[in-house]
Each structure stands twice: as structure tokens, then as C-alpha cells.
Amino acid sequence: MNLEPTHGHSHPLSQTIAACIKIFNDLGFEYAEGPEIETERYNFDALNIPGHHPARDMWDTFWLKPEQSRKLLRTHTSPVQVRYMEAHKPPVRIIAPGKVFRHEATDATHEMQFYQLEGLAVGPDITLSNLKWLLEQFFEKFFGTASAVRFRPSYFPFVEPGVEIDVSCFACKGKGMVSAEGNTSGGARQCSVCKGTGWIEIMGAGMVHPRVLEEVGVDPRTNSGFAFGVGIDRLVMLKYGIDDVRLLYSGDLRLVNQF
Amino acid sequence: MKISYNWLRERFFDGDLDPAPHLAALITRNAFEVESIDENEGDTVLDIKVLPNRAHDCMSHEGIARELAVLSGDSVSYKPERANVSKKLKTADHVHLSISDGVKCYRASKRLVTGVKIGESPQWLKSYLQAVGQKPINNVVDVANFVMLETGQPVHTFDYDKIAGPSDGPKQITIRNARAGEIVVGLDGKTYTLDESVMVIADEARALDIAGIKGGADSGVGPETTRVLLSACNFDAVMIRQTAKKLGLRTDASARFEQEITPEFVMPAMELLAAIIQETAGGDVAADILDVYPEPVQPHTVGVSQGDIERVLGVSMSEKEIGAVLTRMNFPWHEEKGGGLTVTVPPSRIDVRITEDVVEEVERLLGYDTLPSTPLSPGPQPVPHKTPFYTEKIRHALVDAGFSEVYTYALTNKGDVELAHPPASDKVFLRSCVLPGINAALALNIPSADLLGLDRIRVFEMGTIFKKDEEIYALGIGIQSVRKEKDAILAQELDRALDALTVFCPTLKTSAEIFTEKGRVTARVNLSKVFTESPTPRVYESFTPFSSAQYQKISPYPYIVRDVAVFMPEGTTADVGWDVILPLAGDLVVHHYLFDRFEKTMPDGTKKVSYGFRLIFQAADRTLTDAEVASHMEKVTAALQAQEGWEVR
């Protein structure tokens, strides 16, 4: 039928995850993985998120039957940090991409399953300023352009200090404006990727909370660590200009075959 | 949390405050996200996303004001009102207050105000409440609401005369656990049936309210009230949260208690409450406040040193510099003889408990934009892992063989593992097989075959499936015919694909389970097992660059296929044909490809080549009509026919 040779296409999520794995591998971070069905202990308690604490509201959880089993679908990739540290003494440098689940209504920017990439470094000399450097290196390779990174105060129970991280917008190089192509007046228009701010909110991070370290038998007085978690789907949507996250899971080749 | 600019400026900064956008920028850089700034009838309202660990002290105008002052270096000028007390009126003569044993109420306080006149609240009070989305009710209840939004401490007002006991007291008020089956009708008119896990404020006859959560209808302040009993208490955060959840009741009060407020907020709130009620509704305020506070909070101290700042942040600060920041934060501190500082944490800051909390406060105040960027010291060489290594090899091999990758849903309508609270009737189980998703994807894409120029639909997926006690990483592959062809061809193609994968995963083909049906062939493989039987990789394949494509929105409108076949002189390439066709076919052509080619010797001996050109027309915003497409095709056909030696078939 179609005489021209057709090759298939890999999914934009896969391309992105594979790139992240390799970039971090070159930066000294080893791939780690963990189960998608988790225990309450690994998903919450060991991460300093006790039961009956309002912090649990930060995640809409899919609990499994029977409820007494306290098993759930992991709400983030952070449990992999705990599992890994139980099995490996510091120094530790890992990344863990994986599927996570949230009991949320789906719409163009929310899905019940999506991908996160977790990063963790623990050692005698790991500081928050190392994290800033690491992310600058990663984003430069990922976006293919020099990228600035900006931290803002935030809160997650498993890190202290906790930060939100913005990266300079790859589409307008942080300027907030893009020149309109084919615009005879040569005017610039607001960058649609960053909505003119020049920054994209990209991930949460922080220094691993001493209680989390103690829980896995690491002495917080002699070791410190940083951890970060980035939403891959969002990164993919920003990079490729995909406007509806549900398209990523539709099985529709009209999406996949564009890449 | 909605914060009124006027409220901040008038009550905490003596009328002198930077404009709202400045405040928003300061808060965003150093504290919380400001979600919006809205002008609202002469006031500006900032919607501030207070972080969960500061909800105990910053869900109030006072909390935000103090935080702003710390961040900007300005001082707060707060002069909370004090009531004129009546020496003759004593709460203790009219109320006896106690907390029952074992009840998780950490502080209870009561004060009597007599001779009030219930009416409308003054304009200043109504304006503040309305600015932050609250509805004014009367000049006592509004004050209680105001006090909570100003200080962060929930307070309540009872109609003293609706409390059981002798008319002039003493009336017994007890904070106790409810009895099984005890009923309270809330201020919302709803009936709540309680049990022993719920705390109540009770008189000698019945429970008056659901403590910390909702006032009772039959003891609340109404138009006929003349004697008001003020109440401010502190309750256990976990108990309040559990009760609110159990009763399906979340209120402004319970949302604050849930976060664990310091009991030290009770007294200032009580004083303010009495003072402003007196101002708005008149009355005599009792000189005494009944206060049951079994275990007053003790000051909390935390150590912090130069070494801690260095260790956590990678920032170099002298102890003098650290001390200066702590002073700005209103955290008293002193130096320790052996080095380091000991910080006394103010009672309102229950979120500051360990050294790292202090480090965060210091860095937050300095601003994270001052954080340097320091390279990581070299670490051990990472070892490649089988999962990503083989996943990528399988992906590349299948893509080369013409397969496209899909991701489908893990939540589905059948499986071995069930959700406790399914989000939808077709998402009850975790998938136990990868093939239903493959089959659905194959069927979904059949109508798009021509649009995409596919002679068959070929898909694969790699993902987790869930058996009763096991997670398995599985591969699913599927091939679907879109026109009549022999099933054996599909089976052969699948076989070749599996062979390609077995080059590097030796047991893959033998582990594959193959399924055939009319026009379709699928296979599934347990990759978890196959990977354990494959060699350990030594190095990842090199980084392949991303696709640089930008997503083109998929049109929901139908597409139209038009073919034109042309005889051309032998040796003519298809490109020459496209060069004629495409400019005339127009912008509505979303895809084009060659679907046929053959050579023929004509009756007159000349050798010709025939090409079949396929055009796919589709609009982004409408259904195309045959007429629109026909006009383009007429131009195309005419141009082709006009070429020397070409003949449209």
C-alpha cells in the first residue's frame, strides 16, 4: 500500500525517560527501580508522612483491597529512595523513573497514572548547592541550551529544607517573549510555554529529612543528602507542545507517529 | 487563604504598607505562592497558598503580617483592643469549667459578657469579612469569625441563657468525650450522631457543640441573646482531624485545629474577642477569664552552628551572620561556650523543631537566589541496569521493524488485584495482562490507517502487569490487517520481529505466547523472566537525540483520501510527480505518499512507469466537503495531464 519504507515510532515518554537515564548516568547517577504496588510504610511512614497527619492530604491515594493490607498504588517514586538506602550504605547516587498513581479527576493536565523521575544523592558532603549545580547540568543537556535554575521555599514532609524549582524557559530562553515568525511588523509575542514569566515550574526537591535517614539506618550527623522528583509527563508536554496529557495514554498513533 | 490588604495595612502596619504586588513578590520569593491578587470593592485580596507546615500560624492576618515584617525588615505595629472590664462581674460566679480526665483538650477558657445588644455589625467589620469571602451575620458572631481570621485561633460564642443550670449560675461546663449515640444539631441545621471518639463542650444536661468543629444550634447566639459566654480552647490535632473526617464535616475551625495550633494563642484571642464584642454590641465584660491549662507549653530550644549551615546548604556563614538573621526572625538566641548558637523558638512556630528547620528559616530569609552552585565531588561509576538497557534495545528493534509504541492504562475492568475505591466503573482492577490494551490500540487505529500511510497497524507496549502476588514487566506486540490479506503474512512478520529481539534476549522468543485471530496476531512476553536470563550489560548504548518535532493538534474531523495515478516516461522519479501535485493540492493536504508503482511497455513500444499518488485532505476546524477537495483535484489532474509525455489514468 504505502511504498515508502515506514519505520515505527517510539513514544515521546520513552524518549524522554531514556534521555534522562543516560544524562544522569553520565553525571554519576545509577538507575534504580521499585514496585508500583507499595506498602503504606514505604510510601508514607518511612518518608515522615504519618497516618492521621494532614500532610497525607497532599496525595490522593489508590488503596487496594483488602484495606487492612495497607497496600496501595505508589503515589510518588520516593519509596524507591527508602528501599535503595535500606539495601545500600552511603555514598548513594541514584535516579528512579517510574509510574505513579493519583486518585484524581482526569482532565487535560491531570491523569490517574503518570511518570515521575526520582533522584537521590546521600553522602558525607552532599549539600543543597550541589543540587543546584546538578540540575543546571541536567537541564542544559536535556533542553540543549544553557539553563538557569531557581529555588523557592516549599514543604514536603520528607525533606528539610524543601524547595520548588523553576527552570528558565527553554522556548524563549527565559526572556518571556518570542519573536513572531512571519510577522511583518517584526513584533514579539508572549511565550506560550512559560506564559511570559520566563520560568517553568518543574519539580520539588530538598535535603532528605533527618528522620528519613534515621529510618534507613543512616546517621544524619555524618551524612546528608538531597532528593528531587520531577513529573515526566509535564516535561514531555512542555517540550513537545502536547496540550492534553490523556493523549499520552490513548494508544493513538496519530500522536505517537508524530515523533 | 484569602488575605485582605486593607486589614493588614490598617491593623498591623499603621496604615503604611507597600503596594500589594510588592508584598506578593516578597512572599513568593521567601515564603509562599501567591495564587492571585484581586481588586474587590476598594480592597485588594491576596490568595496565598500557605504551606502545610505553616498552616498553624499563617492562616491568619496576624500570621501573614508578622511573616511580612520579618521578610521586609519592617516592624509590625499591632495594637489589639482591650475591653473595659466590669469589676462587679465575675465569670467564676456564673460558670464552673473543667476538662474531663483523659480528654484531648489542652486548654479551655471561658469569659462572660452581659448586657449585649445583638444587631448588625459595623461597616469596618463587614468590609473585612466580605473582602475575604465571609458572610456577615450579627455583631457577635461576626466578631468571633473576625478574631479567628485575625489571630488564627478559632473561638466560639454561646448564649449563656441557653446553657442548663440556675439562671445566674454557677453553670457547669465540661469538656468531655461524647456518649455513644449522643446527638448534636449543628448551627448548619444538620443532626450529628456522635460517639466516644468525639469531643464536646457540654453543660450539665447535654452536649452544646462538636468541640473544635461546629457550634450547636440550640446554644448559639441569636437576636434575643443578652448574655454571651465566650469560649476559646485548644484541641488535639489528630482527634479533630479524625472526627471531622468521620462526620464528613470540615470547617474553618477544624481546618486550623487539624494543623496543631499552639495553646498560647488562646489568651490573646479571648482578650480581643471580648474587647471587640464590647465595642460592637456593648455590654459588661467580666474581669476574670476562666482558664484550664493543665500542661502549659515549655519553651523549645534548638541548636544551630556554622557547620550545620555549611553541611546542609553548602553555604559559608559566620555565627555573627547567622545570629543577625535569627534576630530579624524574632528568634531569641545566645552563643554556646563551645561554639554554636542555641535558639529559643517562639511558641507560635511549632514547625521549627530540629536544626534543619532553623537552617531552612535562615536560607528562606536570605533568599534562595543567594544559594551558590557547587559541583558534586566525583562519585563511583554507575553500573548499567538490565531494565532500561534491554527496554531500549527492544524498543529500537521494534521501531526499526515498523512498530510504534503505545502506553495504555493500568486500571481496567478486570484483573486479580482490586482497588478499594475505584474511580470509575471501568477502572476497578489492575491489569493482569498487557494484551487487552494492545487489542484496544490496534482497533483504535484502524480508521487512521490511510491518514498515517500504514499498510498494517503495528504496536507494542512495555509495562507492568499485576498478578495476585506478583508484578511482572511485560511486553505486548500486535499486528492488525487493514485490508484483505493472508493471516500467514501477519504471523511471519511477528515471527521476524521476535527473532530480532531474541538476538540480544536469548529466551525471548521461546517465552512468547502468541495469539492469532482473523486479521490480527498478538504476542505477550514476561520480560521480568527474560531479563534475568539475558546477559548483564556493561555499558548503555549511546544517547540518541530527541525527536525535535512539535505536536500538531489532531483534528477531530474526518479526512478524505484522493488517489491519482499517472503514466510517465520510464526513468521518471516519483519526486517529479510530487513537485507538480503538491503546490496545487493546497494546505489542506496533511499527508501524502506513493501507494503504487509499476512499469509497462505500451502498445506502441514505449516504456512507461506508472505511479499511484495518494493525498490525504483534512481540515483542523471543519469537515471538508467533496466539492472543496474536488476543486483542488481538478487543478492537480489538469496540471499532470498537461505534462509532456504524462497520462493520467
Key terms for this structure?
heterodimer; A: 259 residues; alpha+beta; three-stranded antiparallel beta sheet; 7 helices; 12 strands; 27% strand; globular; B: 649 residues; five-stranded mixed beta sheet; 26% strand
> Low-confidence parts of chain A, pLDDT < 50 over ≥5 residues?
none
Side by side, the strands of the main sheet of chain A go 1-5-6-12-11-8-7
| Shape field of chain B | elongated
Q: Whole-number average pLDDT of chain B? A: 93
Helix content of chain B: 25-40%
Q: Which pair has the most extensive contact?
A: A-B, 99 and 111 residues
Supply Rg of chain B.
38 Å
Shape of chain A: globular
Number of strands of chain A: 12
Rg of Cα set of chain A: 20 Å
Task: List the total number of helices of chain B.
Answer: 21
Major sheet of chain A: 7 strands, mixed
- Parts with pLDDT < 50 across at least 5 consecutive residues of chain B: none
What structural class do the secondary elements of chain A suggest?
Answer: alpha+beta
Averaged pLDDT of chain A:
92
Name the beta content range of chain B: 25-35%
End-to-end Cα distance of chain B, whole Å, is 72 Å
Give me the strand/helix succession of chain A.
HEEHEEHEEHEEEEEHEHH
Helix content of chain A: 10-25%
Q: How many H/I helices of chain A? A: 7
For the largest beta-sheet of chain B, the strand count, sense and barrel status come to: 6 strands, mixed
Mind explaining what this structure looks like?
The complex is a heterodimer of chains A (259) and B (649). The two termini of chain A are 22 Å apart. Chain A has helices at 12-26, 40-43, 79-87, 128-143, 210-215, 232-240, 253-256, and strands at residues 30-31, 37-39, 62-63, 71-73, 92-101, 113-123, 149-154, 159-168, 177-179, 188-190, 199-208, 224-231. Chain A contains 7 helices and 12 strands. With 259 residues, chain A is of the alpha+beta class. In chain B, a hairpin with a 5-residue loop joins strand 18 (333-335) and strand 19 (341-345). The mean pLDDT of chain B is 93. Chain B is of the alpha+beta class and 649 residues long. Classes of the chains: A alpha+beta (259), B alpha+beta (649). At the A-B interface, helix 1, strand 1, strand 3, strand 5 and strand 6 of A face helix 2, helix 8, helix 11, helix 13 and helix 14 of B.
